[in-house]
Amino acid sequence: MIENEYSTIKAQTFLGKTLSDCQVLIVDDEQASRLILTSVLEEFVRCTSTGDCLIVADLCRDIKPDLVILDVNMPDKDGITICKELKQSAQTVDVPILFITGSVEPSSQDICWEAGAADFIAKPIVASTLIHRVRNLLQSKLRLDLLSELTFRDQLTGLNNRHYLVTEVPAILKNTIRENQFLGVIMIDIDYFKGFNDTYGHVDGDKCLVSVASALKACVRRPKDCVIRYGGEEFLVFLPDTDQQGCLLVGQAIVKTMYELNIVNSSSPNKMVTVSAGYVVTQPNNNVKLEDIINDADQALYEAKQSGRNKLKGYLKNY
Q: All domains of the chain, ordered by start, with CATH?
């Protein structure tokens, strides 16, 4: 019976991605429990397990699990506390949590739901029930990931798109205000890109955009930072918790990296693809609007273009 379940599940795909591509993190202080869970699941998903409840957040950052299976009762830090911490982190808020619990009391179940659980399973574990619960949670996760990809990703470059800017970035601004942090915003424009398209054609123009986007992602490495294709050959970079010096360093790295791509552009005085960039750094308050910050970064970009292009201009702004 279980072998049939395995063969069915292993064959299932969701728009090209199989469940075997998914990573499950098992957290249980009892080695025997970890071994049982792993032996049941490793036939159709990738499994990582730990008995150290204090390193769960670090593990999640390293392996980026698609599902976390948590024992409720553990020493040092219980599963409920770990779940709440994962749900408070932007990196793991969307990762479903499956609780393993020895209690079937309604009050215990309510605590799991309130902590942010996606589901729970009672001990002793029935293998077929575990398989179906894990399969359903992972399929739901894959659907949500795909929806997010289609909704928020620019299909050419893989960067976040304008819809992401409108719907998700306001939350970044609100969190920056709440934490009383600085926010850096950089606007980037590819110099003489119309001339590039006219000279080499739109196919090479698209290849150029993809190369620039990849280089941008390499320059902006923190998980909480984001890069957006603003439109055409324009890009926006948002750097939460970044002061003027930090924003300056990132902006300089972007301008330098683009030149070092060595993409020929005969229509440019530099004979290479370059970018101009403008930044603004602010410690925003509740009165500031996102569009005001973007407009100021755009003004700084204009100044960079006016001063000869292939440059970075910017300033600290109080609203």
A: 2-149 (3.40.50.2300), 162-316 (3.30.70.270)
The dihedral built from the CA positions of residue 137, 142, 146 and 151, taken in this order, carries a sign that is positive
Active-site pick, 5, 42, 233, 234: 233
The predicted structure's pLDDT at residue 146: 80
Q: How many residues does the chain have?
A: 319
Tokens of 235: 């890009």
**What mean pLDDT value characterizes the chain?**
90
DSSP-assigned states of every residue in 288-304: --HHHHHHHHHHHHHHH
3 is annotated as an active-site residue:
no
CA distances from 92 to 19, 87, 146, 240 (A): 19, 6, 17, 18
Rounded distance between C-alpha atoms, residue 86 and residue 116, angstroms: 9
Rounded (10°) CA dihedral 24, 26, 31, 33? -90
The C-alpha atoms of residue 120 and residue 130 are separated, in whole angstroms, by 9
- Judge whether residue 174 has pLDDT over 50: yes
Pair 310, 278: CB distance under 8 Å: no
266 pLDDT more than 50: yes
